[in-house]
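Progress note, sequence design subtask.
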């Protein structure tokens, strides 16, 4: 039984980043207290960079035992780790380096390698890291996600084979523009997280966000973001007012709070 999505609407991207940092730390504290470590998958793109800077900043850096945090990635562009478009490179500069995260607590998707081989190796890495038995899904404590204007999330793009993967944890993805060759966690992994946190800002995403959150079908292929429905975990949306500007959802069934 999936839970109702939780919507939190903030004045702007800056307030959203500060509140997302607070929530990230709360989830991390709970995970470390209950399981001795915090297993998180970071998202790519530009939106989370403000969150990463907040977490590395003076208000947050001392609030979590970072030595207990294991950083994975929800997706990666198939480029070298030093490339300007690399999700790893963005996290390295805004989060890992400022916090002094040890390399053995960072699990990078090998964007520089053959995608199929990199996907296979990452699944092996995750299986070792999580100790998940065959036939079961790994359980991340937190998976961060963004959403594109076409409703994609991670590197799950509309109309691509990755959306229909039911067994593998990591697969090659295909983006319609930009860095086309990608690596991505599959819906099965994402939907078994304890908490899935979407960070979405900007008016350009408002119409698709309304359709995704309110369950409207897209005129074309289904929105990948609409496929994210955690089996037992929490689905949390952190939105700025611009991205939330076309929501018509009643309060019924969706807990929303205007920050
Ligand atoms: C990526 C991301 C992707 C991103 C969305 C939103 O590698 O690009 O994983 O899913 O979250 O495209 O990107 P912005 O935050 O830049 O709008």
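Output:
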């Amino acid at each position: 039984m999936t839970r109702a999505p939780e919507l939190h609407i903030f004045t702007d991207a800056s307030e959203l980043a500060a509140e997302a940092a607070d929530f990230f730390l709360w989830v991390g504290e709970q995970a470390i207290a209950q399981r001795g470590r915090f297993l998180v998958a970071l998202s790519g793109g530009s939106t989370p960079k403000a969150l990463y800077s907040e977490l590395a900043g003076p208000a947050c850096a001392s609030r979590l035992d970072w030595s207990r945090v294991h950083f994975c990635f929800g997706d990666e562009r198939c480029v070298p780790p030093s490339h300007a478009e690399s999700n790893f490179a963005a996290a390295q500069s805004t989060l890992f380096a400022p916090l002094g995260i040890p390399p053995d607590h960072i699990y990078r998707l090998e964007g520089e390698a053959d995608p199929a081989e990199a996907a296979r190796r990452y699944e092996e890495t995750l299986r070792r890291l999580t100790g998940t038995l065959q036939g079961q899904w790994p359980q991340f404590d937190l998976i961060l996600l963004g959403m594109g204007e076409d409703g994609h999330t991670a590197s799950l793009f509309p109309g691509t084979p990755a959306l229909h993967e039911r067994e593998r944890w990591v697969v090659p993805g295909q983006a319609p523009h930009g860095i086309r060759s990608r690596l991505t966690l599959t819906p099965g992994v994402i939907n078994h997280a304890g908490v899935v946190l979407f960070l979405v800002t900007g008016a350009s995403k408002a119409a698709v966000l309304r359709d995704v959150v309110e369950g409207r079908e897209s005129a074309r292929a289904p929105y990948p973001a609409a496929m994210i429905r955690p089996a037992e975990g929490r689905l949390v949306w952190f939105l700025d007012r611009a991205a939330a500007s076309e929501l018509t959802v009643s309060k019924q069934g969706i807990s929303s709070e205007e920050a």
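The first strand starts at residue 6 and ends at 10. Work on this subtask will continue into the next period as scheduled.
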